[in-house]
Amino acid sequence: QERSSRLSADLFGEDCEISHEQLYELLKYAALGKCHNAAQPSWCRIYHQSHLAGVLVIVLHEMSQLHFYKFYLQFKHLRKVFRHRFTLTPSANFLASLYGEGANLKPQNTAQGLTSASSDCIPKSSDLQCDPIIRKYGGKKQGLTSYTLTLEEQKKNDYPIKGSPGCKGYIYTECDQQRTDSSPLFGLDCEMCLTAKGNEVTRVSLVDAQGQCLLNELVKPESAVMNYRTRFSGITKKMLLPVKTRLSDIQTRLKKMLPPDAVLVGHSLNGDLQALEMIHPSVIDTSLLFARNEGRRFKLKFLAKAVLGKEIQCEEKLGHDPAEDARAALELAQFFIEQGPAKVAELNLEMLLTTEKLAEVSQNKAALQPQGCRVQKQLNETPHLSKPCFLDCLQVTGQKPLLLGRQELDSSGLCQSNMSTSNKQILQRALEDVPLSTFSIIQFSLGPEYIASLLHAGLCEKVRSKLTDMLTIYAGPFEESFCLKSVKKEFGRCGPIRSLTVVTETHQPYVCIQYEMLEAAQLAVESLNGAEVAGSYIKVQRPVTAAMLDCEVLIKELELDVENEGVVYVAGIKKSLTETDLQEEFSQLKDLETLFLPKDLQSGKHRNCCFLKFQTSQSAVDALEVINGWTVKGSKLRSRNALASGHLWRWIWQMNHSNRKEGGNILHEKMEQLSDSEQDLRKKVKKLDQHIKKLYRSLQNNTLCVVLFPGVN
C-alpha cells in the first residue's frame, strides 16, 4: 500500500476505550493533515494522509453500544466490514464539538472584499520570497513555455502519458510541433457523470485564446449512468436522451481542431483528459500554476473571483457551465503569464481565501441563531475572532463539509429535528454528494416512533438478561455427596467464574455457574458436556429461555466476527504467572502478534485466562491445535476461538456490576410493552444496516469511514 492511506490502530483488550477528544484528534488530522496545527493522533497513526480521498462520519442518532449488541444479528454489514471498534467514554455532545460549540466567529469591522485588500493584507517584499509561487517560478515574468507541465509533473499528477500502461487505447492528439511563447492557448473543460465504467464525459467545451467557444457538445456515455451529478454537471437524463454523439466523435473533432503546437489550459485538466481518453503533450494546469503550500489547491470559483473579479459556478444556476469554466481557466493562465509571478503573489490569495471563508462561516452561524439572540449578542459583545473550530478550519482550507440528517445543528451544536426527511432521502442525497465531499457527517435516525423503544429501560434489562444467560451454564446431575471444590476447580479451568451455586430443587443436585467471559461458558459447554466430573458423567447446558433460542446462531456469528479474526482465547493459566512468563511460553507460536491478559476491573488482578492475537487466521487455527492440552507450569490449558473482544467483555462486566433499580412487576410490565414494537425495530435496524452498506460501497478507495453510536448520555 505504498501510495494508499491506511490507519494503524491495532489496539487490543483494555486499550479499546477511547475518549471523544481522541476521536476528534483522528478526524481532525485525517481531514486537515498538518494544516491548522493538526497532528498525528496520540493513540493511532494514519499513514500517507495526503492520499486520503475523504472522511465520512455516519451518526446513528440516539443509538448506543447497548443497541449494537441488542441488534448484533441485524447489523450484519457493520460487523463484517468495520474491524476497529472502540468504546467511547461519556462526554458532552460530540457533534457539538465538531461543529464548534462556543466558537463564536465574528467578522472584523475591517474585513475586506475578495477583490480588494487592506494595507495589512499586502505582503512585504521579504514575505514574498517565502510565497510558494515565487519559490516555484521566481519573481520575473516569463513566457508561457515556462508554465507548461514537464513530463515528470504530468506523471506525478496523473496525466495520461503516451506509452503508459494505463493509457492503452487512448487517442493521441499528435500535436508534436515545438512549443514557443507564441503558441496558441486553448481552454478545455468537461462535465462528467458516474457510470458503471467510472467517470464518463457528458459535455465538452473548448475555447480559443480570445474566449470564443469552438466546441460545446453533449456526449452520450457508453455505459449505463448511475449518477448524473446534476447539481454539479447540469446534465439530466432528459438532456441526453436525443444525443447521438459518442466519445469517439469528440476525440476525432478535437484532434482536427487543435493545431500542431496547441497548448491546452484547464483546472485539474488531468481529470478531463482521462475522461476524454486523450493524450496531449503540452498543458498548463491552473490548479498547479497558482501554487499553494503542501500541495493544496485553490478552487476555480475562488480564483476567478479573486484574480479576475468574475463570478462563476453560481448556486442559482443548475450545474456548472463547462464553456464558462474553460474560459475562466484560460483567462487565469493569460493573467499569470502577462502579469508575472510577483504580481500574482502580491494578491495574497491565502489571506483572501481565509477572509472569505471566515466571513462565510460567521454568516452561516449568525443565520442559525434565533434573531433575538443575534441582536442581543451584537449589543453585548465587541466583534472578535476566536479560535476556529473543526468545521471552520475545513472551510478555511476550501473544503466545504457536508452535513446531512434529520437532526440539524443549531448555533450551540445541539440537534434540531426535521422529521419530514426520511432515511431513504438522506441516503439518496448522500450517495450523490459524499463522493464529491472531502468531509461528510451523515446522520440517520429510526424516527420519533422508535426513539421511545430505543431509550426504554426494559431494553437494557433485556440485553443484560440475555448476556447473563449466555454466561451461565447448568451442569449435572451429581451424586448427593459430590465434592463442590472439585467441580469448581474443573470448571474454573475454562475461565474466571463469577458465581457458583448448587441447585437443590431437582431430584439430584446440579450446579449453576456464571462465568465472567463468554468464551469460558462456551468452552465449558464444548469440553465438559458428557465428561466425568466429581465422579459423575454430566450434562452441561445453558438455560433454556425464549431469548436463548438463537444462542447458537449468535455464538457462531460472534466467532466469525471480523474483529475476532486471528484471536484465540486461552484458559487454565495460573494466576502466579506474569505477562512476561506467558510471552516466553507462547513465543514459539508462529505469527503471534499480541498477548493480552485481562484484569479484574475492580481489584486490578489478572484472570486465569488470556487472549492471543495472530497475524493470520490460519496461524490462529494452527495455534489452537498446539495449545489444547498444552501444560504450562503444571497447568493444563484449554483454548478456543475468541467470541468477545475487549470492548464487549468490558461492557459485560459493567452490565453485571451495575445496580438494578427497578422493581420486578414494573419491569415485567415494561418488558411486555417493549416486545410489541421490537419486531418492527429489528426490521428498521436491518434497513439501517443496508443503508450503511450502500453508502460504504459508494465511497472512493482510501476513505476513512467512522460509524458513531452517540447514545443520549
Summarize the structure.
39% of the residues lie in helices and 18% in strands. With 713 residues, it is α/β, with parallel strands linked by helices.
Key words describing this protein structure:
elongated, Alpha-Beta Plaits, 4-stranded parallel β-sheet, 713 residues, 30 strands, 28 helices, alpha/beta, 6-stranded mixed β-sheet, Nucleotidyltransferase, domain 5
Note down, in words, how this protein is organized:
This protein is an alpha/beta fold and 713 residues long. Among the domains are: 142-339, Nucleotidyltransferase, domain 5; 469-551, Alpha-Beta Plaits (2-Layer Sandwich); 565-642, Alpha-Beta Plaits. Helix content is 39%, strand content 18%. It has 28 helices and 30 strands. The strands form 10 sheets. Strands 7, 8, 9, 10, 11 and 13 form a 6-stranded mixed β-sheet that branches. Strands 14-17-4-30 form a 4-stranded parallel β-sheet, sandwiched between helices. A hairpin with a 2-residue loop joins β27 and β28 (635-636). α13 crosses α14 and α19 runs parallel beside α28. The chain is elongated. InterPro entries: Nucleotide-bd_a/b_plait_sf (IPR012677), RBD_domain_sf (IPR035979), REX1-like_exo (IPR034922), REXO1/3/4-like (IPR047021), Ribonucl_H (IPR013520), RNaseH-like_sf (IPR012337), RNaseH_sf (IPR036397), RRM_dom (IPR000504). Residues 471-545, 566-644 form the RRM domain. GO terms for molecular function: exonuclease activity; RNA binding.
